[in-house]
Amino acid sequence: QADFSPAISPNGRKLAVASLQDKLGGWCGEIEDLQTNIFVIDLADPSDRDLVVIDGGWPSWGSDNILFFHHNIEKVEMKKRWGVFYINVDEGLESDMIRVTPEDISAITPAAIDATTVAVATIRKPSGFGEERNDEQYRHIEVFAVSNEPNEPLQKVTQSIRPLADHFNPFVIVDNGGQKHIGYHRCKVTDNVNEYTVVETKFQKIKSDEPEVGVFRVSGVFPTFSPDGKKLAFVDNEFRGVWVADEQGLRMVFELEADSVFSPVWNQNPANDILYICKGPAFQQAKPLHICLIHNPGKGNNRRQQLTRSSNNAFPSTNREGTRLVFRSNRDGPKNLYIMDALRGEAAGDAVRLTNGDWTDTHCQWSPNNNWIVFASNRSNPKVEKKKDLPDPGFFGVYLINAYNPDSLVKVMDSGFDLTIPGNVELFPGHVNHPYFSPDGKTLVVAADLAAVSCEPISLPLFSHSVRPYGDIFLIELDTDKLENNDFEEKRDMIKFKRLTHSRYENSTAVWTMYSTDNTQVNWNNYIGTDPSAISFVDPSKGESFLVTGHLCIGRRCC
């Protein structure tokens, strides 16, 4: 049982919550529509919980008996249609659900003004990621009145203020004079209406709850540190360019006019100033995606050397000598792991298949000090049918394999267990992804949904390259002695881990650095500050894009 979106009635005697109580299986990995039920709790006796709405969320009191909420009326994946409704809680489940907002628009996150008026966030026309949006495709705040039939709004609040920007989660404030005001949230990224931040020129240091872990924010994705720890590379939020921070400054060193670039990673040999990138469409496995090499990227070399010939290839990583490169590819059908020459690619010979099965092996990284390769895979349950509201079937866990012994498979962590049933050992269709070795090879950091969700995801901004609005960073300690002694059987399915972050948003693709943000031997940390000045791109629509997310980089000081 988990409760979300609490709302106290005007008389202070009742609490309404969106809850997973009475939902079969509880949270099942949904990324947008949690299908919660609404309960009203008597605060004099909190154990007294009355079910008043099945499949509703975000309750808001219009009076002591009128409750507004949102509800998704279309369960077909990617075609959701939300509306705002109200009920009389005194009638319980017998009360009719009366729609307030029109059926041809989506309306969510209601904030009641009174028993007959409510502020909501609307999306009047659907849009897809990457599309140039007009004002009706942005999320705006509007006010509706209760009537016999859903009608047009009493007031459009934000369309005239900033039509090409998203606005979230309205709320109502009453001033000292009793006047009511509507507030809302917005992702403010710049004061210039025609410019939207992609890369901030200052990194932001963030307080960490873990004493041995330092956290700072980089406005980008897929960070990677050079093997000597002195260079930081990452991709901007548009997936258009590769940025490097080192002794020469913070700058873009590689840019594409078309396609996407992602997953940069340095060659692990410090003598090789080489950066690998993936070039091609992201999240489109039927289209070609190539691994490319950039020599001396810090010198602004925009020339790339393509290492793969065909198919969809991604997530490269070299051995510590910098001579061999592991990557995932669908060249033989399913996504499996392959190894090829790190400097010449397939021009030096065909890639050698390392794993072989009708499942997905991905997110691979070679250990910095031995021949072990860590990767994510759904091999524990590859044929399961995908559930609604999930981008994939899930069941992704983390595994180790020796680069020169394909039979040496070690399961490190599975996708989690259904803990709602005592003693249950069935796997949960979760995601433990993007594993990465610490510099000493003794610890893994992973991104996982083991902590489920902490709010209703529909209330959050959605990012085009962040397919799940949840996920946190965890550490897994490895028993390297057993690995080196080939003691595989005793090293299976570890369930001990340590949580590092707690966020409503997705934290992902974590990496390590041997230096803390205060270390004077490196220069990338010179860009840590409080000045949010930015280098901006103009979105084609002159409006805010979906790509306003940031990224967390974690450095464990004891490594």
Distance between the termini: 38 Å
Rg over CA atoms, rounded to whole Å, is: 25 Å
Work out the number of β strands: 39
The average pLDDT score comes to 83
The fraction of residues in strands falls at: 35-45%
Number of helix segments?
1
The percent of residues in helical segments reads under 10%
Largest beta-sheet details: 4 strands, antiparallel
- Residue runs with pLDDT of under 50 for 5 or more positions: 190-197, 530-538, 546-559
Structural class assignment: mainly beta
Shape from CA axes? elongated
Strand order of the largest sheet: 1-2-3-4
Task: Describe what you observe in this structure.
With 559 residues, this protein is mostly beta strands. The chain is built from 1 helix and 39 strands. The strands form 11 sheets. Strands 1-2-3-4 form a 4-stranded antiparallel sheet, with no helix packed on it. A 4-stranded antiparallel sheet has the order 5-6-7-8, with no helix packed on it. The C terminus is likely disordered.
